Amino acid sequence: MSAMPYVILLGGGGHAAVVLDALRMMDVRCAGYVDDNADADDLDVPHLGTVESLHAHPEAALHAAVGASEHRQTWMNTFAGHVWIPVLHPFAAVASNVALGDGVFIGPLAVVNARAALGRGVIINSGAIVEHDNEIYEFAHIAPGAVLGGGVTVGEHALVGLGSRVLPNVRIGSTAVIGAGAVVTEDVEPGTTVAGVPARPR
Description:
The protein is an alpha/beta fold. The chain contains 2 helices and 23 strands. The strands form 4 sheets. The chain has an 8-stranded mixed β-sheet, with helices on one face. A 6-stranded parallel β-sheet has the order 6-9-12-15-18-21, with no helix packed on it. It is globular.
């Protein structure tokens, strides 16, 4: 990554602050961030303008630093000609044979174990555990402290909530939402929200 001229973040909120800290610990220079909110000032790097202003930075590497999966997808598709760097916090533990898609973020103290595959724009947030042979599809978000047993599949744009637990070999459908603290013992259909112990549709 040292050969990159610079990195620009898309988004200026709390998640972007975590990503920025990880970049600094990786010794990767962040030139600033873009955000459509003209008053955005949450980060201690320059606000470079709106997202559209990225057209003036064709050489920049990018990272979509927002939790909203629809924004990550739209931005990565719109600026597909750019390099979308994965950001792996130095205090994360990532197995050597994990497959990483473009623009993945793995937060501090997260664990991603052997033969897991993370699709484009996936977030594995602080302290989450993704066990062996998991397959996490594009733009899914594994929230802080969530634990996925071995062989779990998480569909596109799904959200696995704070501190939740997913038993081995369970399939989470696309756009499904797993509530905070839920324990998921069986497959979750696409578009379904589940919560509780054991998790049930809500």
